Fold each of these.
Amino acid sequence: VRIKGNYKYELGELASTLNFMAQEIVRSNQIKDDFISSISHELRTPLTGIKGWSETLTSGGFDPAETKIGVGIIAKETERLIGLVEEILDFSKLQQNEMKLVIGRVNLKELLQEIMLNVWAKAEQRQIQLQLDDKSNRTLFVIGDGNRLKQVFLNIVDNAIKFSNENSWIELVVSLQDNNQVLVEIVDSGIGISEEHLNKVKDRFFQVNHQGGGTGLGLAISQQLVELHNGKMDIHSELGVGTTVSILLPLIEQSEADEMKEDGDN
Ligand code: ADP
């Protein structure tokens, strides 16, 4: 009886596990379907612009100023298209464990300053104040791929700008942690994310709405890239208050950094 009882129990457990797995497959297929539909739309928008302007310009009869506008739009939309496709390829490489990092010594604060310069104009346009609060007071070196780390921080700061209202602020806080680690917090006072959406946002593909365009892959890519650098990424948010993305990375000692000098900088 006991054997039978155990057997029954295991069957019941198996059934509920299978049921759960089936639900997960349905959910994951639904997410992928939504992704394909939203990414097709995202890809189509710049293509429509490129097609329209190239046809218009081919028909001729435009003065140099008009031609310059048309060519400018084609160049901008092409750039956008390349960005979207690169994001999809990065995501796919990460999924298949095929992302290759070009490892070197990365000066983290220099990298963050570069990010600030990169997005300065975009923030200024929307009257968003950007500041770097460095609580570490020392040079911070990490081992990693400078371009990939730049991609991570750029994506997060870009999101912070995209999802902030005019006349707000964004702060990058750098602090030393135990075990020779550094914490970088990207704090915004933007629209925030509700509790209901926060877990989904951490999942790939999900966008609260399509307000900012994009693929919905940025955070998932960033998280996986941080993990490839033996770090951790976390996101906290409150609707209407703002969002904080925290990135914890292991540091290397100055002596190790000096030894790596020859291997090239970021
Ligand atoms: P994408 O920016 O391409 O949509 P992400 O993975 O970077 O993809 O972000 C997914 C979604 O998470 C965004 O569409 C947005 O809804 C939400 N999100 C991300 N960062 C923020 C932020 N700082 N404030 C509010 N919402 C955010």
Amino acid sequence: MAAVTSLLDSISDIGRDPVRGGYSRPVFSAAETELRSWFTAEAQSRGLAVETDRNGILWAWWGEPQKGALVTGSHLDSVPGGGAFDGPLGIAAALAAVDVLKERGVQRNRSLAITVFPEEEGSRFGVACLGSRLLTGAIDPDTARNLRDDAGTTFADAARAAGLDPEHLGRDEDALARIGDFVELHVEQGRGLGEDGPAVAVGSSILGHGRWKLTVHGQGNHAGTTLMEDRADPMVAAAQIITAVQQTAAAQPGARATVGRIQAIPGGTNVIPSRVDLWLDARHEEDAVTARLVETIHGKAQKIAAFEGCSVTLAQESFSPTTSFDPALQRQLQLALPQAPVLVTGAGHDAGILAGHVPAGMIFVRNPSGISHSPEEYVEDADADYSATALADVLEDLL
Ligand code: HGY
Ligand code: MN
Ligand code: MN
Ligand code: MN
């Protein structure tokens, strides 16, 4: 078993989710904390010096921390019931790529750092890429501090428990200046490389994507004593709204809209809910189309709610505009990986947030299942191990 597959194998029991299947590794949870310790130990065993910055981003340095370094990284947190590769593949490939570069005796002209970003999935506090948004100032620190998880814990409290000073969260000029070029290697999360495509692709851009919360207010009541004609049931409205989401997106070429999370309040089997919260994830290559899509969905939701004697509010939780990667860096990645096609990705990444501030690029590794954010996410061992060589080829060119 070669480097990347054995690194991934060594964490394969951390954060397993017996109910959902796959892995649930929320930021700053016991599982993700264990993964951060794993990363720190693996990096230190390679002679890399590891530090944590004010936003909880881990930096493992080969060479002195310096401005304009070459940086590669990804994340270790996961979606609920996520796959084994989304995030950890980029981290394992970076560690193994350092082994390859050292074996090749590569002489560095600048330092190399491997970074681990917290809360890339936004699964616990609701905002994706929270670590890189804090680093770049793309989110107001106060807004970040007051984000709450389902248990009501604020990000400030979770960050403090993880050893950070929540008052210190926010744009970090020094850390940002240290990123001369940023490359993220990541499992391909769609069918871009298909069943028998090449092992790797180079990223060109990321679809714009956002998260909205729809709250449907109705009349909570008793399931047994309330006649059907006397109801204002927000769950009945929510069901029709979700169908309207699907129909609206299906009618818009290239659009993707998902309601993957819904919550009935209070949530009793024998209780007509007083409120139903549902979260919308909407994406498209053109930001104006995404905006129009959400507007159309909101209008349909208001009509449906009114018909059911309910009301509905819409709140935006986060939005990331369509992002293109640095063309010069993309060309260098393509030179180092001549057989790699160029892919647009529908998945968000920290590289997408960083691309607005520093030269950033991505490499994708073939996932024959074409499925992600699911235990079925898959990378063949040979491709996983080759990904370290591909990343080393790219990094050697840039070092
Ligand atoms: O949601 C996304 O696209 C990313 O996986 N966080
Ligand atoms: Mn990811
Ligand atoms: Mn993901
Ligand atoms: Mn991502």
